[in-house]
Amino acid sequence: MDNHERKSSSSTSTTGSLADLGSLASLLPHEAMLMAIGGGAAVRPEGVPGRVPVEREQALFGELHLLAPIGYFLLDGDSTTILQTNLVGADQIGIDRLAPDRHRFRSFVAPRFLGDFDAWLARVRSSSKPLRCQLQLTARRGDQGIPVTLIGHAGSQYLSLTVEPAEGRLTLVEQSEERFRRIVQTASEGIWELDTSARTTFVNPRMADMLGYRIEEMLEQPLVHFMDTEGRSILERNIARRQQGMAQRREFKFIRKDGAELWVHLASNPIFDARGNYRGALALASDITEHKESADLAWHQANFDSLTGLPNRNMFHDRLRHEMRKARRDGAFLALLFIDLDQFKQINDSFGHDQGDALLVEATRRIGDCMRASDTLARIGGDEFVAILPGLAHVQDAERVAEDVIGVLNRPFDLSGQQGHISGSVGIALYPSDAADAEELLRHADQAMYAAKNGGRNRYSYFTPDMQAQAQQRMRLAADLRRAVARQEFELYYQPIINLQSGVIERAEALLRWHHPERGLLNPGEFIAGAESSGVLQEIGDWAFRSAADQVQAWQKELGRPFSISINQSPGQLRTDNQRWQGHVTGLALPPRSIVIDVPEDLLNEPNGEALAQLRRLRAMGLQVALDDYGTGHAALSQLKKSEIDYLKIDRSFVSGLTGDDGDLALCEAIIVLAHKLGLEVVAEGVESEAQLGLLREAGCDYAQGYVYARPAPASELLALARAGAVPALTADGGVGRNGVSAA
C-alpha cells in the first residue's frame, strides 16, 4: 500500500468533529495535519469510489478546519463562490468569515496567474485525486501578491481548497501537531490560551460555546472581559503565581455573553519558551454550573425555611454563635427574642393549613419590617420565630422591637376574604447577662416567652431565675402526666344538669380530675395545657370518653330511665380518627342521645374543616352536640343556623350577673329565643342562686347546672342525687344541702 492509499484508508471513519479525532492520534504529524485541514487524500466511504457524498463533504468543514493554521475553503464547484472558510482563510484574503458567499475565490487570484488557475481548476474537476497549484493571491486590487500553494479536490458538488503559504509550511504543521494533540486529549473540555498579558490567543469551540460567544469575538480579548469584579480581583492575585510556574486548579465563575453565570472547574498551567521565559498560560475548563446550582440548592434547603425563606434552626444557631463571639470580642451585648404566635392553632383549625401558611408568610413580612438590616430573623418551628438583635445601645431597644412585633401581629390578617386574628407572646433573653452559650440563651428566651404567654399573652417578658424554675415545673408536670396515664390516676367527676320544668336530674357533665400523688386533687385548668404540649391529651381524652360511656350505661340501668352525659372535647381531639369511639358506643348498645359532645363556639368558624366533619360523623353515631360557653366566641348567626348542633350552653359570665332589670338578662332571653327558633335547647351554666334560677325559668331556659344544685362530685354521689327525685341543693362551701345528700 503506497502512502496515499494508507492515508485514505486511515481516514475512512473521520468526519471532522472533535468526537472522531481519536483516529488522528495514530497518524504521522504531517498526515494528521493534512487530514485535519482537508489537504490530504479524499475521504472515501466504503463502496463509493472517487466521490464523497454532499453531507460528508459538509461535515468535513467542522471544528478542526475552523481552527487549522492553514487556510481552508469550501467552494461552489462551478462558480468558485466561497461557501465556507476558516479563520486563517478569511484572514488571508481579507473577508468576513460569516458572510463568504458574496465573494468568488477566483477574484482573489493575482491577474497574471488567472490562466494558470483556470487550467488547474479544470484538471481538479475531472480528477479523483487532490491536485496542487502554485500561484499568488491578492486581497485588494493593486496589492502585491502572496505566494501560496493550492491543494484542490473536487467533490460531487463542491470544491475543497487548502491554501498553504509558500514558506513556513513545516513550522505551521509542527505548531498544528502540538495544538491538535492537546485538542485530541481534551476534546470534551473548554481550552483557553492566554498570552503574557492575559489576553486570549486561542479558544476552542467548546470554550466559546460555554461562554456564548463566537470564537473570533473572544480572540484578543483580555480575560477580565469575561469576569465580574470578584473574578478580576482573584485574577490579579493569581497572575503572579502563574508567572512563578505554579499550576492551579479551582472552581471559578465567568460571566456569559447573555449575563448568566458560568461555573467551571479550571485547571491552568503556565507556558514557558525554550529559554524559560513566561509566554502565557493554557487553561482547561469543565462546566460545573449544574453541579454548582444543585450544591447551592442543597445548601439553601439545609439552611433556610422553604415556606418563609427565613434562616431555619440550623442557620440560626450558626449566626447566633457568630454574633455572640462578636459581642464578647467587642464587649457589647445582644438580645434574643423568642416570638410565638398566639391562637395560630385556631387559625389552622378554622381556616385550614393553606390559609395558615399564608398567615405565616404575612407574619414573617410584618415581623421582618420591625428589624434592622443587622438583625437576624429565623423560623425554628411551626409558629415560632427568633430574632437576634446585636449591638444594642440600651436594653430598652429590645423592648421597643418586642412592642413593635406585638403591635403588627395584632392587626387582622386577610385570609381569602375573611379576617384572622392572632397575637404574639415574646420572650427576651440577654447576652451575656442571662446565658453563657447559645443553647442556654435560646432556652432562657423560650422560658421568657412562656412567662409572657402564661401572663395573658399579647405581651413580652424578660428571662429571670424564677422562669427557670417554672420551666422545670412544666417538665416535671409532663413526666407526671405520662405516669398518671399509665397508673390510671385520673377520675371523672360529674355535675348534675336539671330540667328546669320538671326539676329532674336528666343529665350530667363529666369533668376530669387528677389524683396527683403529691399535690392532691387537681382541676383540668392546672394540667390540661401541659397534657396537650406533652402529647398525652389524646390518650386522656380517649380514656375519659370510654369511662363516661360506661358510666352512662350503668346509670341508665340503675335509674331505669333515659340519662345522658356531656363530655368536653377540643377541636384538636375532634380532628383525630375517633373510629374507636364508635366501636365502643356500638359495643355498649347505648340508645341515641346518651352522650353529648361539648365543643367550643369558635369551632363554627372553621370552614369545611375536619373538626366539623368529625362532628357530623359523631352525630351519625347517635351522639349529640352542644355549643359550649356560647356568647364568648365569634360565631355568626348564619354559621349557627347551618351547623349541626343540639344545645346552646349560655356562658356563666352572663348568668352570674343576672338581676331583674340588667343587660345580662336581656342577652340570656335573646339567646334562649334564638335557640328555640332554631330548634335548639338551652343549658345555663354557673347558676349559683335561687334568684338566677327563677329568672332563667321565667325566660324559658330548658336546663341549668351550677352550685345552686351541686358541685362536681364522684359518680356514686351523682347517682344518689339522681335517685332522690327532688332537686337537692348544696351550700356555697360544698356542704350538705337541704335534702341531706353530701356532695363533698
From TrEMBL:
<dbReference type="InterPro" id="IPR052155">
    <property type="entry name" value="Biofilm_reg_signaling"/>
</dbReference>
<dbReference type="InterPro" id="IPR043128">
    <property type="entry name" value="Rev_trsase/Diguanyl_cyclase"/>
</dbReference>
<dbReference type="InterPro" id="IPR035919">
    <property type="entry name" value="EAL_sf"/>
</dbReference>
<dbReference type="InterPro" id="IPR035965">
    <property type="entry name" value="PAS-like_dom_sf"/>
</dbReference>
<feature type="domain" description="EAL">
    <location>
        <begin position="474"/>
        <end position="726"/>
    </location>
</feature>
<dbReference type="InterPro" id="IPR000700">
    <property type="entry name" value="PAS-assoc_C"/>
</dbReference>
<dbReference type="InterPro" id="IPR013767">
    <property type="entry name" value="PAS_fold"/>
</dbReference>
<dbReference type="InterPro" id="IPR000014">
    <property type="entry name" value="PAS"/>
</dbReference>
<dbReference type="InterPro" id="IPR000160">
    <property type="entry name" value="GGDEF_dom"/>
</dbReference>
<dbReference type="Pfam" id="PF00563">
    <property type="entry name" value="EAL"/>
</dbReference>
<feature type="domain" description="PAS">
    <location>
        <begin position="176"/>
        <end position="246"/>
    </location>
</feature>
<dbReference type="InterPro" id="IPR001633">
    <property type="entry name" value="EAL_dom"/>
</dbReference>
<dbReference type="InterPro" id="IPR029787">
    <property type="entry name" value="Nucleotide_cyclase"/>
</dbReference>
<protein>
    <recommendedName>
        <fullName>EAL domain-containing protein</fullName>
    </recommendedName>
</protein>
<feature type="domain" description="GGDEF">
    <location>
        <begin position="332"/>
        <end position="465"/>
    </location>
</feature>
<dbReference type="Pfam" id="PF00990">
    <property type="entry name" value="GGDEF"/>
</dbReference>
<feature type="domain" description="PAC">
    <location>
        <begin position="248"/>
        <end position="300"/>
    </location>
</feature>
<dbReference type="InterPro" id="IPR001610">
    <property type="entry name" value="PAC"/>
</dbReference>
<dbReference type="Pfam" id="PF00989">
    <property type="entry name" value="PAS"/>
</dbReference>
